[in-house]
Each structure stands twice: as C-alpha cells, then as structure tokens.
Amino acid sequence: MAFVVAEIGFPIHAGPGSEAGCTNRLGIGVTWRVVSALSIGTSHIANGTPCQDECWAMVEPRSDGEVLTIFVADGAGSAAKGLEGAATAVQTAVSYLAAAMRGPGFELTESLAPACLEAVRTAIDGQAATDALQARDYACTFLGLVSSKEKTLAFQIGDGAIVLDVGAGLELTAPPMTGEYANMTHFVTQPDYLEVMAQKIYQGRTQRAAVFSDGIQRLALNMAQGTPHEPFFTPFFDVLAKATAQQEDMLQSQLAAFLASPQVNERTDDDKSLALAVWVE
Q1: pLDDT tens for each residue of 197-253
Q2: Whole-angstrom distance between the N-terminal and C-terminal Cα of the chain?
C-alpha cells in the first residue's frame, strides 16, 4: 500500500520494514493501534539545540479492558531546561496514569486531568528545587488523551492540538492556546496552569486520534476555521488501520521520515511530534 499526504507529496507505505529508531513507537493489538515519532526542527539544528518535544503513545492493559494513553509535551524555546521539563511532564503523566489504573475504581472523570497535571507540576517543582532553578526554567506545554471502552478524556495546556473521532467524525478538542501576545502560549509551569487548562470528556471510546505539538499544527489544522484538515490525517489513519505486525517497523520509520522530510521542513522550522491511534475491531 502507498498513500500520499495531501499537499505535502510524501508517500506513506505499509510494507516489510527494518528496525526503527528509538524516537518511534508503534503497537499492534486487538484494540487500538498506535504509532508516534519526533523530529528536530531545522531552527534547532541551526542553533545547535536539541529537540525539545517529548511524546508517548501506548495501550495499557486492564482487567476490564484496555486504556489508550497519549501524551505530548513541548519545551519552551525560551526556557533553559525546556527539554527536561517536557521529559519530566510526560514521564510523570505516564507514571501517574499507570498508578491510577491499578486502582479498582479507575474512571475517566473531570478530576483526573487536574490531578494528573498537579502531579506533573509537583515533579517539575521538585526538579527545579534540586537544580536550584525556578519552575519557569522548565516551561513546557502539555497535551493528554486517555480513552477507555466507555469514555475519552482530552486535556491540554498550551498550543499543539488533539484531533479525535469518537463516532461523529474528526474534531478538534480545543483550539491551540495562545498567550497575551502573538507567538505566545500557556505552560504547565505558570501559576494559573489549572485555570488555563482545557479539558473535555466524550462518551464512547476513541475511534481515531492524533495528538501533536505546534510544529505541525499549521499543516494539520484549518487555522481560520478551527477544524482538522482531514486530507492530512486520512492517509495515516488508513495505513495504520490496515497494517500488520510485520509492517510495523516500516510505519515507525516512515512517520519519523515524514516529520523530518523537506516537504514538512519547508513549512515549519520547529520541532515536531505526532502520535496516532486507530481502533481496530
């Protein structure tokens, strides 16, 4: 199979592949299939700075059914420890959700997102204290998607976006957040982080989802309308839905290659992260 991402001209294939790099993750299962990848921005290469995005996508087993978890964080370019902040945010969220899911009363409610973000903020504050720095030195955005067979929770602080389909077609869960001035956004390290957080609970499991940092939001969204640009997502979802276990390495490496391709870098010089999930019966 071979697909071309609309307006980008980059082929996405499903076929036998080789071992993928450590920045990629794909899981083939009987419920959700997930894949994620990161790519450093050309401006970071020019400045000699590392990629400051972090992402996680995994299907977690539970006795009453599996749970999809996706987290994406983007370290602020102006923050001295933005990468460390993003890494701490994602690692803490993963640990917090894993612990929460081990409890017998785990449920996707409105209290889960703020509790997760409070754990993230506590971890960042602790890291800042250890390093004799301020929390703002670890500034990062944060996006989270958690889905069970009954409900889906989406929450975010900052730019980037979550696009999902719970049965009524693709939709944007919240518009990318901007701050007081142009080219500014919100971070988990600001004092009012819980007040600026956006969250939404959907009835029903996620059928298709994409979570990504602001590096590709102008490719993936109709910014003026505040809607997903469906031709961008369709090739990825189609190939992921049809992939076999033998094809997973190719999909991993191709997603990373797409994010690092000249076709994408001509349109953005920022770091890029993209996590995708498709429900397969």
Answers
A1: 999 999 999 999 999 999 999 899 998 888 999 999 999 999 999 887 777 668 888
A2: 20
Homologous superfamily of 2-279? PPM-type phosphatase domain (3.60.40.10)
Q: State the pTM of this model.
A: 0.89
Helix (H, G, I), strand (E, B) or coil at 151: strand
173 and 152 Cβ atoms separated by less than 8 Å: no
What are 161-194's pLDDT values in tens digits?
Answer: 999 999 999 999 998 787 554 568 999 999 999 9
3-state secondary structure of 4: strand
For the chain, strand residue ranges (E) read 2-5, 10-13, 25-27, 32-39, 53-60, 67-75, 140-147, 151-157, 161-165, 171-172, 198-203, 208-212, 221-222, 227-228, 272-279
The sign of the torsion formed by the CA atoms of 204, 207, 208, 213 equals positive
Q: By the 8 A CB rule, do 176 and 217 touch? A: yes
Name residues whose C-beta falls within 8 Å of residue 73's C-beta, 6 or more positions apart in sequence. Answer: 53, 54, 55, 85, 86, 87, 89, 90, 140, 141, 142, 143, 188
Please give the torsion angle defined by the CA atoms of residues 27, 100, 214 and 134, in that order, rounded to the nearest 10 degrees: -130
State the Cα–Cα distance between residues 255 and 30, nearest whole angstrom.
22
